[in-house]
Design brief:
alpha+beta; 11 strands; four-stranded antiparallel beta sheet; 1 helix; 184 residues; five-stranded antiparallel beta sheet
Amino acid sequence: ALPKAVLMLPTARPKCLGFTLIEAMVTLLLLAVVALLAAPSLQRMIETRWLHGTAGHIATTLHHARASAVARQERTAVSLITRRGGGLCQLTHTGRAADCSCSAPAAAQCSGDAQLIAAVHLPERTRLAISVTAASIRFDPRAGTATPAGRWVLRTTSGREIQTVVSLTGRVRSCARGPQELGY
């Protein structure tokens, strides 16, 4: 018997998987261009979210202070205080605004007859400018009216702004002004 012949077929060369250096560099270049184009839009979106979030918080705090004044049957105020280290502190309290201070994020306090209800710290890094016509707005416990009427304006570096207005009747409303990109 003759030995069986073994048939040797040439093996196929395995495919190389992966990218060439040129393909990887072109992909990275395209990603960098897309990132550069998207960065300003992303920054505007973040700035707008900060603006809407902070304005919404201020309006909510003013509504809460008015309701708290009526529920407690005690004059309640919301005061905006500039901190020494930068940033702002928003205090909800009873008593006089001069009796309350906010020197550090965890150190909001009131003295004398004033009682601290809530404290919120707005860090300087928010890039929002805040201007006020009344640094402290007090709500009357009987009718919920406000003294004095005031306007708190939040403005971004790009000119978008939201005004929170408190009328003498205690009504709190917000309105937006600025570039067209202000929408939600």
